[in-house]
Design goal:
binds zinc ion; Mitochondrial inner membrane protease ATP23; metal-binding; 4 strands; alpha+beta; hydrolase; metalloprotease; about 55% helix; about 240 residues
Amino acid sequence: MATETSNAAPVDKEDNWGYDLYPERRGEAPKAKWWQVAFFGDGRNTLDRTECEKNVYYCFQNSPLVKLMHSALKASGCEIDLRRHIACEVCDVKVSGGYDPQLNQVVVCQNVARSAGMVQGILVHEMIHMFDACKHQLDLKNIHHLACTEIRAANLTHCSFVSAWAQGDASPFRIKQQHAECVKTKAIGSVIAVRPDVTKEEARTAVEKVFQKCYNDLEPIGRRVRRNSPDMIRAFNERVNYGYE
Ligand SMILES: [Zn+2]
């Protein structure tokens, strides 16, 4: 469920739920490291938060994909209130965002996600987890459920952007294969990012087991979106087909 920034495995083996990656979730404000205080001063976190909240607000106003996910959630009976369900926080630099199933909140990592484009990617990814939690009784403690929702998030967002960049001379068959490989790799990375107790092999086995079913489930976006293509707008315009306003 975390949107990870690197392939590095998280360090804390005792925290099965990855909350160590989100220090503010544990009710304590993360202490600034000496170099952060030395170079940026204490005001840095406040500035980051304001900037992050501005980007979140911008995405909810302007991003067709975020707006689509917003209406999809509403149509499924899980309406989002920006102040209640989206939180900008300081996170471990290994992750850029996350979904907290207990509080039903999306976390945007203000210290990592510094552009509207990046915030958009995080919001859509985590809102897919939120959608699955709302609509499909997602149990994130079940590794197959976790693998499935990570496959769906990678499939509908990240990998579709990446495959578009590689499209130039590749054959359609190869693109399809590359896309599926991208989704697998990304989903395995996300599973081990939030479940440090799971090995890469266990994550791979879980992803393979549910892959076909979850890869083919394109709800609620309805298509694999290519970056800077009319797909984004098209998906938003077709939302009525799925019963969203
Ligand atoms: Zn995720």
